[in-house]
Design goal:
465 residues; mainly alpha; Fumarase C, Chain B, domain 1; Fumarase C, Chain A, domain 2; Ribonucleotide Reductase Protein R1, domain 1; 3 domains; two-stranded antiparallel ribbon; two-stranded parallel sheet; 6 strands; 62% helix; elongated; disordered N terminus; binds arginine
Length: 465
């Protein structure tokens, strides 16, 4: 690096020797923060307009700055921008190029601000843009879940606890459980957006600025709903990024659990579902294989998002006020979180409505595990037995079923009466899988009626967001 170049560095006047070449590269962030170029330019445009409004820049200077920034943006988007490590980060790269293009006026743009409030503004704009791209993808996933739930409202499958057959449920009901989880994720993200959407610009380096700035004006131009109320907090706060990543980690946790079910269900042992070929790959050696790669990968990618959350929390935990260079480390975890979440969501939103349910298999599986045993116990309580006694009776009947290879619904009335003489012909209404699910007919229950009602509520909710 030449001395001449170094003299162009913003901080160079104070230094008597040039930065060590390795240190220069080590401390630079341009390799990754160039991803925020749009937000950086957007922030600079608003800042320049505000400086003009309060009389620090004149109209012709503003015009030069706006034209220059437009050209910088064009160069970046055309892939013609010459990114420079010597200019350290996105802010200085853009400003140096602007100054090269329009001369001395370019150097006035930084009046009344610092890279500290500039970067805080850029990240907030960046996350806000990402939130606005992620919300419609979450909605698309929810629409897919509703479609599948409504298609499979009557489909019976075993419901599990401890991964052991517990009671029959409807496939639609199971899908709507995932809908509820995603709905809470949406709410978390919407709530996070409110705090992200706050303007820190005007905090300057840490203490505010001596210029007569108009922060409300800048906030309005950038669409921020609020303004940070303490300059020290404004430059150093990264809570909003942590919150966003916590949302992402929770969403990935849900997608990972869901993935686990899809992987199990598409196995030869379960055969509950068939994932369309376009979401799977084969094996290079075993010709019979069809691997559920998409859910497997989403499950696997969950780990890195958890890691990013832990990185950001740890990044912040020991920082004294106000800005510290440590904060430069917030970007890579954040960017990877965004990419991982958007990729995983896109894959899921495409895949879910395309799932093919093997109804005969889910039905047979529900029959195999004595899933209506609780229904028989409840029936006996209806006939006057205490629940503990009926539990005992049903246990004996199940033991008999295991020995003889029969489901409860397949036993004769005489056989059942051998366990309890209160049992009559009407027992078969509760022992069938259809009877069992239909009986759970209340808000939140698995009955097909309830699934259809929940689908309608879910559709109405989706209209509102
Ligand atoms: N590249 C820095 C970051 O990402 C920008 C702010 C640097 N400020 C400073 N005074 N060194 O946080």
């Amino acid at each position: 690096m030449s001395n001449k170049h170094n003299q162009q560095k913003l901080s160079s006047a104070r230094f008597s020797e040039s930065t060590d070449a390795f240190v220069e590269a080590f401390t630079a962030s341009i390799q990754f923060d160039q991803r925020m170029y749009r937000q950086d330019i957007q922030g600079s445009i608003a800042h320049a307009k505000m400086l003009t409004k309060v009389g620090i820049l004149n109209e012709s200077e503003l015009r030069d700055i706006l034209d220059g920034l437009q050209q910088v943006q064009n160069e970046i988007e055309a892939g013609e921008f010459n990114w420079s490590i010597q200019q350290e980060d996105i802010h200085m790269n853009i400003e140096a190029r602007l100054t090269h293009l329009i001369g001395i006026t370019g150097k006035k743009l930084h009046t009344g601000r610092s890279r500290n409030d500039q970067v805080a503004t850029d990240i907030r704009l960046f996350i806000r843009d990402e939130i606005d791209a992620i919300l419609p993808e979450l909605k698309r996933l929810q629409e897919g879940l509703i479609e599948l739930a409504s298609r499979e409202a009557n489909t019976i499958m075993p419901g599990f606890t401890h991964l052991q057959t517990a009671q029959p449920v409807t496939f639609g009901h199971h899908m709507l459980a995932w809908f509820e989880m995603i709905k809470r994720d949406v709410e978390r993200l919407q709530d996070c957006r409110k705090r992200v959407n706050t303007l820190p610009l005007g905090s300057a380096a840490l203490a505010g600025t001596t210029y007569p700035i108009d922060r409300e004006f800048t906030a309005k131009l950038l669409g921020f709903e609020r303004i940070t109320e303490n300059s020290l907090d404004g430059v150093s706060d990264r809570d909003f990024a942590i919150e966003f990543t916590a949302f992402a980690a929770t969403l990935m946790m849900h997608l990972s659990r869901f993935s686990e079910e899809l992987v199990l269900w598409s196995s030869a042992q379960f055969q509950f579902i068939d994932l369309p070929d376009r979401f799977c790959t084969g094996s290079s050696i075993m010709p019979q294989k069809k691997n559920p790669d998409v859910p497997e990968l989403v499950r696997g990618k969950t780990g890195r998002v958890y890691g990013h959350l832990m990185s950001l929390l740890t990044l912040m935990k020991s920082q004294p006020l106000a800005y510290n260079k440590d904060n430069q480390e917030d970007k890579e975890p954040l960017f990877d979180t965004v990419d991982t979440v958007r990729g995983s969501l896109r894959a899921f939103a495409d895949m879910i409505p395309a799932i093919i349910v093997q109804k005969e298999m889910t039905y047979e599986a529900a029959k195999r595990g004595f899933s209506t045993a609780t229904d028989l116990a409840d029936y006996l309580v209806g006939k006057g037995l205490a629940f503990r006694d009926s539990h005992e009776v049903v246990g004996l009947a199940v033991a008999h079923g295991i020995q003889t290879g029969q489901d409860l619904s397949e036993m004769s009335l005489e056989t059942l009466q051998g366990f309890c003489d209160k049992i009559t012909e009407d027992v078969f209404e509760v022992l069938t899988l259809e009877g069992s699910v239909a009986a759970r007919d209340h808000l939140g229950g698995t009955a097909p009626n309830q699934v259809r009602a929940a689908v309608e509520r879910a559709k109405a909710y989706l209209m509102s967001f």
